[in-house]
Amino acid sequence: MDFVGIDKFSLLDFEDKVACVLFCKPCNFRCPFCHNGTTVLEADTTIPFVDILEYLKSRKGLIDAVVVSGGEPTLMPDLKEKIIALKELGFLIKLDTNGTNPETIKDLYESHLIDYVAMDIKNSFIKYPLTTGTKNVNIERIKQSIDYLMNSGIDYEFRTTLVDEFHEEEDIIKMGQLLKGAKKLYLQKFVERESCIQKGLHEVSEEKANKYKDILSKDIKYVSLRGY
Question: Could you list the residue range(s) of the whole structural domain that residue 125 is in?
Answer without folding.
Answer: 5-162
